[in-house]
Amino acid sequence: MRMILLGAPGAGKGTQANYIKEKFGIPQISTGDMLRAAVKAGTPLGLEAKKIMDEGGLVRDDIIIGLVKERIAEADCANGFLFDGFPRTIPQAEAMKEAGVAIDYVVEIDVPDALIVDRMSGRRVHVASGRTYHVKYNPPKAEGRDDVTGEELIQRDDDKEETVLKRLAVYHEQTEVLVGYYSQQAAAGDATAPKYVKIDGTQAVEAVRDQVFAALG
Ligand code: AP5
Ligand code: ZN
Prior knowledge:
This protein has helices spanning 13-24, 31-41, 44-54, 61-72, 90-98, 116-121, 161-175, 177-187, 205-216, and strands spanning 2-6, 28-30, 81-84, 105-110, 123-125, 132-134, 195-200. The protein is of the alpha/beta class.
């Protein structure tokens, strides 16, 4: 199965990706996680991406498309994958189409902007695994520690309110158009179009998960 998780920053893509990848046995491909790994490793890509990410902007399409094409050619992607935070622009979506990557499902997690800053300010992340918590809504078993490894959780550099607002604006300007791009293909009855599923992301984490699973069958 090949899937796309679509939604604003903080909508819960990473949180739901963790459940989906386990249930369906497919790798999660988070371009955000890949870029953060490059930043941490201090590669030329990481050095370039860091500034853009800290400002809440988008990294150039050609760089992202190159990264994703390389990743989906790896052996563990043979039976499918889950895109998290990709595609984020029309050129990124078109690049997948041109490469013949047939997507089965697009799952949109819909959350209004008003809830997003609160979610981001309470977010804590286990960097090595990508597991995500929230101090109020999805707390770890031990404060500040990952449930599985017991390692320390961190706050992301781009979760400052000012950067979150910029990321939201960029989402509305450049990414939200993909809602129409994919849902209209499905509505037009194009046999090769992915199935389009929209989930109310304001519900509790487990309720969102159950609705995603029900939609995926
Ligand atoms: P990326 O890492 O993709 O960030 P994002 O899309 O902004 O999304 P987030 O990871 O912030 O949110 P999420 O939806 O995963 O929410 P989460 O599950 O963590 O990208 C970062 C940057 O990299 C971009 O700004 C850009 O610069 C660059 N980049 C990445 N991909 C790119 C691309 N394709 N092209 C160009 N540039 C790219 O949840 C958030 C919080 O809410 C957590 O604390 C969680 O516990 C909590 N929560 C989740 N669900 C619920 C719920 N149902 N109820 C209550 N709380 C919840
Ligand atoms: Zn994420």
